[in-house]
Each structure stands twice: as C-alpha cells, then as structure tokens.
Amino acid sequence: MKGIAALVAIGVAVTITVLVLAIIRTHDDVSDDLARCIEQGDAAIVRGPDLLGPLRADLANGFAPRVLRRYRLGENGAVLLEGTGYRVLALDGRNGPSLEGEVALRIFRDPSEFAVVGVERDPMKGVLAGCASLQE
Question: Taxonomically, which superkingdom (predicted)?
Fold first, then answer.
C-alpha cells in the first residue's frame, strides 16, 4: 500500500513539474519565436532608441502612431502601431508596461521594458503583422 502511495505521489509531482515547465517554456517561446521571425524578415529588433528615429520624429511633431491591431499571443499581449512610413510591434513582458494609452511614448522612452519591440521601415511588406499572426 505504501508503494502505491509513493508511486501516486511521484506521478503527481512529475505531472506538476511538466505542467509548470510547459507553461514557462510556452511563455518564453513566444518572445523568442517572434524575435526570430522579425529578424528573418525585413524588419529589426529594437534594443535601444537608435532604431526608433521615425517614431521620435512623429512624436516630436505631435503625431502619435495609430494602433493598427492588438494581438493575444499565448499569455502575452502585443500591439502593432503604424506611423509615417513605419510600423512598430511591441510584445508585453511579465512585469512590463501597459500596452494601453500612450504606448508609443512608453516604447520610445524605454523599449527594453517590453519583451520584444520590432520596427519595420517598409510596412507594405507586412513583416511585423505576419510574425505576430504566426504566434496567435
């Protein structure tokens, strides 16, 4: 009887461990897969404000890029913004800033707060939208 109880306890522990690892892996895979897709397309991952020149110019001129689409990517949310000749895709992080309100300004101030930020200079190609759609 003790042997059966021990086997059941081990089985429960293994099941819980597998579930936790699957949840963590799924969460991390979204940002990794999204970043990989963006880099393989004709777009760039933003690691600092240097690639956000078009966004800076729009914000300086009082123009906020419009929200083109919102995505639900697993446990993450993402927003696709469209400005003058560019698009920006931001994937929220576990403790990152909100994707609501003045998200363009938050992206510009500190893109590192987001799990992934991508920028596309020729939005007609649809790289960012395509990459986000692949993760839905």
Answer: Bacteria
59 Cα distance to chain centroid: 22
Distance of alpha carbon 128 from alpha carbon 107, whole angstroms? 16
The predicted pLDDT at position 124 comes to 80
* Distance in angstroms (rounded) separating the CA atoms of residues 59 and 16: 47
Domain ranges of the chain: 16-134
Q: What is the C-alpha separation between 23 and 74, in angstroms, rounded?
A: 10
52-106 residue pLDDT tens:
999 999 999 999 899 999 999 888 899 999 999 999 999 997 777 889 989 999 9
Residue 135 · residue 72 · CB < 8 Å: no
How far apart CA 60 and CA 81 sit, in angstroms, is 16
Query: Which residue carries 């109880």 as its tokens?
Result: 5
**What is the tens place of the pLDDT at every residue in 21-42?**
444 444 457 899 999 999 999 8
